[in-house]
Design goal:
- This protein has 115 residues and is mainly β.
- It is 0% helix and 31% strand.
- The chain is built from no helices and 8 strands.
- The chain is rod-shaped.
């Protein structure tokens, strides 16, 4: 404002699609919008989606360890699930070996009858 004019007020800027409000507007400064983070497919999943007031939260995907298999594949918004391989009991044998995406199968050892 000056001694002969009023302050020129304008509405706060609105964030666009795929943006969130990083800093709200004040009487002296406009809103600050930032682009939403895009999680890296195959490396991260989106643990929390971007909203009008918060950025997305990307979390690294779990890596299945030795002795584990991937029981459910990761999705854009969900981590993979890993489970331990089944351990065959002493009266069983491994009939199907495990892979990185499937458990081992165990079958019962046949009982032999004397003849």
């Amino acid at each position: 404002p000056t001694t002969t004019t009023d302050r020129g007020c304008s509405p706060c800027a609105s964030c666009g699609p795929n943006q969130f409000l990083a800093t709200a507007c004040t009487p002296l400064a406009d809103s600050v919008c930032q682009n939403c983070t895009q999680c890296t497919s195959g490396v991260e999943f989106e643990a929390s989606a971007c909203s009008t007031s918060n950025n997305a939260v990307c979390t690294p995907l779990t890596v299945c360890g030795d002795g584990q298999y991937e029981s459910s594949a990761p999705e854009a918004d969900a981590d993979r699930t890993c489970e331990d391989y089944t351990v065959c009991r002493s009266d069983q044998y491994e009939s199907v070996p495990p892979t990185s995406s499937s458990d081992r199968a165990c079958s019962n050892v046949s009982a032999c009858e004397p003849t």
